[in-house]
Amino acid sequence: MNRAWKDDPRVKAMDPKKVDFLTELAEQIGQTPRHRMMNRFLSVSLEARRNGITFSDQETEVLAAVLAESMDPDDRAKIDLLRTLSRRIGN
Predict the structure, then answer these.
(1) R_g of the chain computed on alpha carbons
(2) 52: phi > 0 → left, psi -120 to 50 → alpha, else beta; which?
(3) Which pLDDT tens digit goes with each residue over 52-72?
(4) Is residue 1 predicted with pLDDT exceeding 60?
(5) Fewest C-beta in 10 Å: which of 14, 25, 56, 73?
(6) Stretch 36-49: mean pLDDT, rounded?
(7) For the chain, what is the HEC assignment?
(8) How far apart are CA 39 and CA 29, in angstroms?
(9) Taking residues 14-36, what's their average pLDDT?
(10) Residue 70 near residue 29, CB atoms below 8 Å
(11) Average pLDDT value for residue range 29-48
C-alpha cells in the first residue's frame, strides 16, 4: 500500500496514537479483498471507538482518503456519497 499519506501535514499534526491506528489500518486494508472493502470502511469507526480513539472531521477526511485509495471506483463513489451525506447531516 502507498504510504505517501503519512507525509500529509494533516497526518503529521495528529496524535501519534491515531497515526499508529491509521498505519495498522492501512496495512489491514492492503490485505482486505476488494469486495469486502466497503464493510471494512464501515467498521473503522467502531474499531477506533473500541480503542478509545476519536477523530475530528478533518482527521476523518484523511482516514477516508487512506481507505478510498485501495477501493475500486464504485466503492469509492459510495464512500464519497456517505461523506457528503455525513457532512450535510452534521451541518
Answers:
(1) 13
(2) left
(3) 888 887 887 777 777 677 677
(4) no
(5) 73
(6) 78
(7) CCCHHHHCHHHHCCCHHHHHHHHHHHHHHHCCCHHHHHHHHHHHHHHHHHCCCCCCHHHHHHHHHHHHCCCCHHHHHHHHHHHHHHHHHHC
(8) 11
(9) 83
(10) yes
(11) 78
